[in-house]
Amino acid sequence: MILRLNLWVLWLLLFCSSSTLANYIFGYTPNAASNGLSWGMNQTYLGTHGIGGMDISGVIYTYNPIKNLADDFVVTVENDRVGGGFVFQDTEDWSQKHPIRIKKVIPLAYTPIAVFGDGRIRTSGTGTIEDASVQYIYRFDACFDPQSDPNCPNYVKPPPPKLPDIPDYDALQDESVKIAQQETDKDLLKDDEKSEEEEEEEEKEEEMEWLLASTENAIAMANGIAQASILKSMNIATNITNYYIAIIPDSIYNETVVLQGGEVVDNRRALRSLSQDARMNEMIEEQYK
Amino acid sequence: MKKLLITLSLILGATPILAENIDVSGTVQSRCTVNVDTPGIYGNPNAYTLTTAPASAGQVPIVRFDVTLANAYFAQISYPTAFTSSPSLPDTVAWTGAVTVVQTSSSDMSGYHAASTTSGSMRQYALTIAGTTWFDATSIATYGGGQNKAFPGGSYKAVVLAQCIAQ
Q: Which of B62, B64, B106, B107 to mutate to test the interface with A (most CBs of A within 10 A)?
């Protein structure tokens, strides 16, 4: 009975420890003071983990004070606290002290980054600082926002995106559909047939008109040609008298070419050539048979 | 017989133990720790010189002292005066060096160097403030006893001794 109770307690302890332990990433931020003596607590200055889930457990700062031994010079490194005050504030008084490089660690209890306001290095007195570095020691809970990773505990699958409001569509009320339906109406088809017959008649009438117009044009053209021929004959009548006056001298043109030998002999060479051509043609024709 | 036995037993029981060693144990946790921050490297700017100067491709060794109790310890740091390992050196080596405070964890420690004392190659600092102090020790070795002879080729090692001594 006692053994069973012990096992039950052990199981309960193991369950509780495994369910509460977060998977932390530990590290140091880059130098937050690399671009100046004041900085914000965000990813710009603290790197990729400078968001919710970062808990800061310490600050490491270094700088070189530049001053004369006799001068008063005070340097303060601090971070505002959201809502007022400071998360930490560390002051070094270098007044009448030898300037020497300082490196200091400020331990803090794990403090969420959300508590941190802006950070800065303040100086007062005569002197400056050089080569300043401020780094935060942190742990980062990647599942601080469970929705950041589906593998995180308590991750809730996001609902599907909301569908846009689409108005109800009634095809019977659509004018376009009505028009489309009218085209398939039989009465309309009959009307169309009638209108086609009318169009054909109109076309025939137009053709007839065109033909009539063509004959009229032809007659007009013929009239024009006739008038032109009359004018031409008139012109001929006026000029022909010159030809009547002209005298053509009468003369004989004797044959001047004389056939020597009186007999035309066939050109045998040509005949041979022609026979060879005939043979050649015959050979050519042979190949197509 | 019973009485004898008793007597014997009495005699045995009454045998006196004249001395007894009782262990007393305890642990004293050190309140001063010494750690190497940066190991040293010798550069060789010329044939007869070995130096830790960064300008000569050397590296100055830095040692770190952490004390959690003020006014309880001295830091004693000595620069090298001999090689712990080297090729055979028939001629003499001239050694020079210096120990300085390079960094502290508090401005109150800035007076450490001014208050330190030296004895030969060793410099002693009174660690009057609880915190961390970084010391460096430069070292220069010149071979030839003023004749500037070339170091024989080989590997050379020397040691900077840093100790935390109770006040």
A: B107
Task: Kindly list the residues from chain A whose CB atom is less than 8 angstroms away from the CB atom of residue B65.
Answer: none
Q: Which residues of chain B have pLDDT under 50?
A: 1-14
Which chain A residues contact residue B102 at CB under 8 A?
A: 100-101
Q: Is the ipTM of this complex over 0.90?
A: no
Residues in chain A closer than 8 A to B107 (CB atoms) = 65, 92-94, 97, 100, 102
* Top-confidence range, A240-244, A245-249, A283-287: A283-287
- For chain A, the residues whose C-beta falls within 8 A of a C-beta of chain B are 62, 65, 92-94, 97-105
Distance from CA of B22 to the nearest CA of A (A): 41
Q: Residue B131 and residue B136: Cα distance in Å, rounded?
A: 17
**CA–CA distance, A83 with A114 (Å, rounded to integer):** 11
Phi-psi region of A107 (alpha: psi -120 to 50; beta: other; left: phi over 0): beta
**Distance from C-alpha of B112 to C-alpha of B91, rounded to nearest angstrom:** 38
Which of A92, A93, A101 lies nearest to residue B103, judging by beta carbons? Answer: A101
Please tell me the predicted confidence (pLDDT) of residue A283. 85
A55 vs A164: which has the higher pLDDT? A55
The 10s digit of each residue's pLDDT in A169-194 is 888 788 888 787 775 656 666 766 77
B59–A contact, CB cutoff 8 A:
no
**B129 interaction partners in chain A (CB closer than 8 Å):** none
DSSP state of B61: -
With beta carbons under 8 A apart, name residues in chain B contacting A97: 107-108, 110-111
Look at residue B5 in the predicted model and tell me its pLDDT.
Answer: 37
Token couple for B12: 């045995």
Single pTM value for the model: 0.61
Indicate the DSSP class of residue B129: S
B130: contact with A, CB 8 A cutoff: no
pLDDT at A14 (0 to 100): 46
Element (H, E) at A223: helix A186-245
Q: For the purposes of burial, counting CB atoms within 10 Å of the CB of A120, is it exposed (0-12), middle (13-18) or buried (19 or more)?
A: middle
Angstrom distance (rounded) from CA B138 to CA A169? 90
Q: What mean pLDDT do residues A4-25 have?
A: 55
Q: CA-CA distance, A110 to A22, in Å (whole number)?
A: 14
Q: What is the pLDDT of residues B58-67, one digit of tens each?
A: 999 999 999 9
In this complex, the residue of B110, B132, B134 whose CB is nearest that of residue A97 is B110
Q: Express as a percent the part of chain A with pLDDT over 70.
A: 84
Return the residue matching tokens 């491709």: B57
Tokens of B120: 């030969």
